[in-house]
Specification:
Layout lengths: L1 E7 L5 H15 L6 E7 L11 H9 L15 H5 L2 E4 L2 H10 L9 E3 L20 H25 L1
Parallel strand pairs: 1-2, 1-3, 3-4
Helix pairs in contact: 1-5, 2-5
């Protein structure tokens, strides 16, 4: 089983959306038995909470079901368990790298946008304090990146 962990700050908008989008892509590809997806936050602000209601609403419009509960990244457990740990922005990446003081797991850490095939951006913006357009933008980027990520995993395996 290949395991992917998506990470943002609070694990209520971007990373649970990435998890839901990727799960949908994995299921459509018939790979649910061989690819596992989860999400977590670098901060524990929302532990146990569902994804932001606005994010769930926008995701549902596109057919994504955001069912995960927020949790904080667990070091070293998550680093040992997951094959890839994918950050939504540079701040999340720095936090992930800081947890891995010795750089033992650096080959597992990736930026979400590095898998984008059509979009050109260096981060998935946090939509929390914005309007509807921000949530739609996040989903646009995640759909592009998850498509590329799935191809990457299939080639890698």
């Amino acid at each position: 089983m290949f395991k992917v962990l998506f990470v943002c700050l609070g694990n209520i908008c971007r990373s649970p959306s990435a998890e839901a989008v990727m799960k949908a892509y994995v299921e459509r590809a018939g790979l649910s038995e061989s690819i596992f997806c989860d999400s977590a936050g670098t901060a524990g602000y929302h532990v146990g909470e569902r994804a932001d209601a606005r994010m769930r609403k926008h995701g549902a419009k596109r057919g994504y079901d955001l069912t995960s509960r927020s949790r904080q990244v667990a070091f070293p457990d998550d680093y040992e368990t997951f094959d890839m740990i994918i950050a939504m922005d540079a701040s999340n990446m720095r936090d992930l790298q800081d947890l891995d003081e010795d750089g033992q797991y650096e080959d597992k850490l990736h930026m979400m946008t590095s898998f984008c095939q059509r979009e050109s951006t260096d981060h998935v913006p946090d939509p929390y304090y914005g309007g509807a357009d921000g949530f739609e933008r996040v989903l646009d980027l995640l759909e592009d990146a998850c498509e590329g990520l799935l191809q990457h995993i299939q080639i890698r395996r």
